[in-house]
Amino acid sequence: MKSITPFVLLNVFCLTVFAQRTIHGTIIEAGTNEGLPGASVYLSTNHQIGTTTNASGAFQLLLPANVSSPKLVASFTGFASQTITLEGAKDNYIISLREDINQLSEVVVVSGTLKEVSKTDSPVPIEVYTPTFFMKNPAPSLFESLTNVNGVRPQLNCTVCNTGDIHINGLEGPYTMILIDGMPIVSGLSTVYGLTGIPSSLIDRVEIVKGPASTLYGSEAVGGLINVITKRPKYADNVSIDQFVTSWAEFNTDIGLRYNLSKDVQSVTGINYFNYQNPIDNNDDGFTDITLAHRISLFNKISFDRKENRLFTLAGRLNYEDRWGGDMRWTPAFRGGDSVYAESIYTKRWEVIGAYQLPVKENIVFRFSANAHDQNSFYGETSYQANQKISFGQLTWNKVIGFHDLLVGSALRYTWYDDDTPATSLVDGENDPSSVRLPGGFVQDEITLSPQSKILAGLRYDHNSIHGNIFTPRLNYKWTSKNKKDVLRLGAGNGYRVANVFTEDHAALTGARKVVFLEDLKPETSWNTNVNYVKKIVIQSGFMNFDATAFYTYFNNKIIPDYMTNANQIIYSNLEGYAVSKGISLNLDFNFISGLKIITGGTFMNVYSVDNDENGNEIKSQQLLTENYTAVWSASYPVTKNLTVDYTGNLYGPMRLPVLSDLDPRPSESPVWSIQNIQLTQHLNDKWSIYGGVKNLLNYTPPRNSIARSRDPFDKEVTFDDNGKALPTPNNPYALTFDPSYVFAPNQGIRVFAGVRYNFIK
């Protein structure tokens, strides 16, 4: 960390001015004259020379000195684009955009096909969320920010250390791939902790694909993917600061800095710092309600100007976190002991990602990433020391031939993993780190049948050095009406996943249960189909966007941890039967002339498995910690020209919970619960804004007895039979053992927050 700081400081002070024309301006909404944050501005003759507006709608754009009669195009989702001609030496412009139903969803996306297309033209349904959406409910991490996205639920996996993952349409976190700028950075061990520490000041947008994307992205992209697109250095704010504090004494700071390293090299640095050191035990179970954490993350991205605007970017991130949760009396002196229980995790992580377009006539791009994750942790007296290294490279060639838009690629992924568990040990106890090579190739053909319809067909082949050959095909069809107000998409695809339970299942690490394998685990496979329909509707007071999706996923060899057979064990095996995830999702976006904007949605789903008992009879079981329905909403209204109120929330239906036995007094099903928030934002000028509000207005928290036997975390007063099963005794009438896996909602109650934002474009 110390060696990087001087480098960053040196870059910051190396700001220079070159012979380029600098254009300033503000994009506003016609009628209200309010700035439009996240709007796009680019040169009409070269879309790669462009930028996006900041939180106040302001922008700065550097134009090459040799551009003659330049014209700028300003666009924003749901608004009619406008083209202006730059006038002589004038360098400051105010551009007014009017709402237009035909322009909804025209944002550019890349996650569905690995190349830039408008959202409407993409054969794969993609949801896009800008920083403006996340500002409606500010959070210290991307993990928490996703709580208001329909069909996406951040799931806490432990009441003590608050680790979690992201569920998409009811499928657990290991089925979700997380990418930064299209590269698989967060996976395996880092899925649990890698979603924290991504500086929000550098996020341009977040793209979400629901359903298998293994054809393009390989393993883990079974349930879907979340692609975090960072800002282009050339067009980011010179300085951006976002800092807030809560009444629980949580402090979060995001800083973004843009600077030039030379005439043709631009850089942007993002810093995220989070600190919470205030133990609170409102539910009186003797344990911290949320973990204490100290985290710092540094992100730097560099882009190079090349001939013919060829792509070359290089980025890196460093992340360090020290977190612990547990007994309120705990101090680091008790770490690893059996007298005072806590879960203490030290995490160090680095990442490098990049993309380089080859200097040839054809469109050939090499993308690469590498990361290393080191974890030093204790769960009570159980040690978990783990190290993971992943390298990934992918070469793609894009060629348009007549009605065919071809994408051909080859990829190589190498994963090395070692820990102090049986996962990387031989039978005799000798250490045996896991080493997996995954070479592969894929081909994709986007066929334009007519101006209104196209087909996307793809096939991927991978060779896993342990599990052998794997094929993942997919097929998509898209139809668009002539006025672009109706879009229909049909999709089908195959996915696969190789599981490592120790890197994915926190309950396997707590020491509260013994891990049992009934067999060598086989890769999971799945088949998915989905139907997506989008309708843009003009109403008297504005317009709305209707987006509905029906989905169905069928699994073979699914790995489902068994918590119910033995309260002291987690039993892993491949399902002999099958598993299903099916449902329907609906999103509605309303934009009213009055300025009121509402984004709301709901998902109804049924996620279950079917297995055979010892007599061959089928037994259907609902998946643990998976709700039957969920709803989310976000409503924003401009009270005055500079004052906005945001009301956000979510609602979750009942979930099946992992109780220890029939004697367990805790409910086996969760109630309907909701987290709701309100925020006021005051824009002081085009640079400064202040905001504040209340999180968890209803002060909802799960039952006080969520942690079983929190007063005896080492089971010193529990009596077991010869098979290791807890027995009822006078001081343990329900035959419970210590278990923190009974968790379905955050333990953090109502709290006030306040913050300040600063955005400056020179």
Report on this structure.
With 762 residues, the chain is mainly β. It folds into two domains: 4-99, Immunoglobulin-like (Sandwich), CATH 2.60.40; 108-421 and 438-760, Beta Barrel (Maltoporin, Chain A), CATH 2.40.170.20. It has five helices and 43 strands. The chain has a 22-stranded antiparallel β-barrel. The protein has a five-stranded mixed sheet with strand order 10-15-16-13-14. Strands 3-2-5-6 form a four-stranded antiparallel sheet, with no helix packed on it. Residues 1-19 and 101-106 have low confidence and may be disordered.
Give the SSE layout:
Layout: H1 4-12, E1 21-29, E2 40-43, E3 46-52, E4 58-63, E5 71-75, E6 82-85, E7 92-97, E8 108-109, E9 117-118, E10 127-129, H2 131-135, H3 142-145, E11 152-156, E12 164-168, E13 176-180, E14 183-186, E15 203-210, H4 214-217, E16 224-230, E17 239-246, E18 250-262, E19 265-276, E20 292-304, E21 312-326, E22 342-357, E23 363-379, E24 382-401, E25 404-419, E26 434-450, E27 453-464, E28 468-480, E29 486-497, H5 501-504, E30 514-517, E31 524-539, E32 542-556, E33 569-572, E34 578-592, E35 597-612, E36 618-622, E37 629-638, E38 643-652, E39 673-683, E40 688-695, E41 719-720, E42 726-727, E43 751-760
How is the main sheet built? Answer: 22 strands, antiparallel, barrel
Would you report the number of β strands? 43
How many separate structural domains? 2
Which architecture of the largest domain per CATH?
Answer: Beta Barrel
CATH class division of the largest domain: Mainly Beta
Global structural class: mainly beta
Count every helix, treating DSSP H or I runs of 4 or more residues as helices. 5
Rg over CA atoms, rounded to whole Å, is: 26 Å
Uncertain segments are: 1-19, 101-106
The name CATH uses for the topology of the largest domain is Maltoporin, Chain A
Oligomer category: single chain
The CATH superfamily of the largest domain is known as: TonB-dependent receptor, beta-barrel domain
| Through-space gap between termini | 29 Å
Helix percent reads under 10%
Shape: globular
Instruction: Kindly estimate the percentage of residues that lie in beta strands according to DSSP.
Output: over 45%
Arithmetic mean of pLDDT: 85
